[in-house]
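Consider the following assembly input.
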Amino acid sequence: MLTVSIFAVLLVLLMIDVPIAVAIGLTAVAFFVGMGQGDFLMMLPQRMYSGTTGFTLLAIPFFILAGNLMNTGGVTKRIFRFAGALVGHVPGGLGQVSVISSMIFSGMSGSAVADAAGLGQIQHRAMVDAGYKPTISAAIVAGASTIGPVIPPSIPFVLYGAITSVSVSRLFLAGAIPGVLMGLAMMIGIWMMAGPRGLPSSPRAHLNEILVSFKEAFWPLMAPVIIIGGITTGFFTPTEASVIAALYALLLGFAYRDLKWKDLPPILFASLKQTCGLMFIIATANFFGWFTIFERIPDALITQLTALGTSPVGFLWIVIAIILVLGCFLDGNAIFLITLPIFMKLCPLYGIDMVNFGVVMTLLIMIGNLTPPVGMCLFAVDSFAKVGVWKLAYECLPYLVAILLVTILCAFVPEISLWLPNYMMGIG
Amino acid sequence: MKNSIIHTLNRFDRALTLTLEWVCIVLFAAITLILSLNIVIRFVPLMSMHWFDEILELLYGALIFYGAAAVWVTHSHFSVGDWISKYLKSVRARFAYRLLVEVLSLLFAAVFLKYAFDITMQTEEQTTAFAMSKKWLYACMPITGAIMVLYSLKNMYIELAKIVNPALDIETGREDLNH
């Protein structure tokens, strides 16, 4: 009953447009006071401070900055041209190009919203100019942008690692194959829709065009090699890799002369604003997480699930259902912060691998990014496509199904995500 | 007279936002420098970096909380978005609804300020490397809390003024970070 009341109050506060950070913090404050435990409010600033200043979380501002710098610094244009030369001739031409370019860009940026807002604008403009209906084009862009946080590097993986103490390097590697599967599933979807919906494709590119575009995109293509290579060889930690990614993006921007010194302060502050908005949610959610544990909510859930005789498969279906519902109303990071303190106590009980669980959770919150009324990628794409969030969400349905299929596959066949980290880093 | 007060307040807003923006940029530059130095030192051991964690914690804590204050000043923390106002027919009801949201925000900011101030004043702990009082680490929280309370009061005043006179034209400097 207490659990239901807590989440009901939180949901009401969120739905009446109280800032997410405030809603999360205020819910915990209200219940502490309401239950006559006001003395524990002294833990509020302590938990907020300790929850945000961890070394792992330092990666977040740098990955956000790297994405923003690449969008401004001409990197996205080069990747898009290269992807066009590779798959522009396949049925659904530019749609396929969008998915491939998003997959490549994912290897440098860790945020779906940054992918949608930056690369997405170039993809959308190119598709509309080629005769795609704006809603179809916007849906492809929104769907493709969700690949970003699954293929490493990834901000949700950093956050998941910080909350659950699972190795971020393992999580990064675990995301690679599911991310590629997501891309392939979307490409198959576009290929199937190309005929019935009249999606045009371009003529096959000459070898010369492929080579020229590859040469242009060579240094941006090296970014994932440097980032992932550096982490797996132990040259640097994921947090340090984020700094390298940002500095590399800066260097490329200046080298291509697409970035000027005067562009830096606005890009920096825009990135910092996104970071601090997110980190303040993390801060209050840390207090909320502590509150749920203090009130023994995970223990109560364990007792209930055990009494119901829930199997590991049943538990995973419950998780999928909960996250899909929450994903309609909450930002993905907030979902992590609210639910993980509870789930991380339940997973070992059911013998579920925490690395694979991180991949499944990330895939689920990517679906949440495409479901209204609160879908961050829908908002980001609609801000420039102007097709209407609900129409866009409807058009995104095939991509939602594609991601859901990959999610279910990864949830019940953990080897898909675990093979690469186990192969590269040994069985953890 | 009223206009000149609002004009002065808006100038103060812009100055405060600009100050917080530059404080954040400087803190971020320092973090970048230290993290880069740490990678270099690993391969070229020129100096000891035993102070690394402590300084990073200090800088990152300050960056997050001052950044959060800047986002609060511009009224742009992440939220679900206002979908309720369009269903409220009366203009006054819309401002009353906005006032309710501001009151809830103020409530949280006030609790945060009180306990952040208490912990900062009462802590006796010291950091390991520099034996520096942890008051310096925690100081960013009451400062942020105070800015949040001030701006929540300002926003409440604006919503209240609009309930009394819905035609009132006050620049709120509101900015949307969500979309």
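Chain A has a mean pLDDT of 89. Ask yourself how this observation constrains the way the partners meet.
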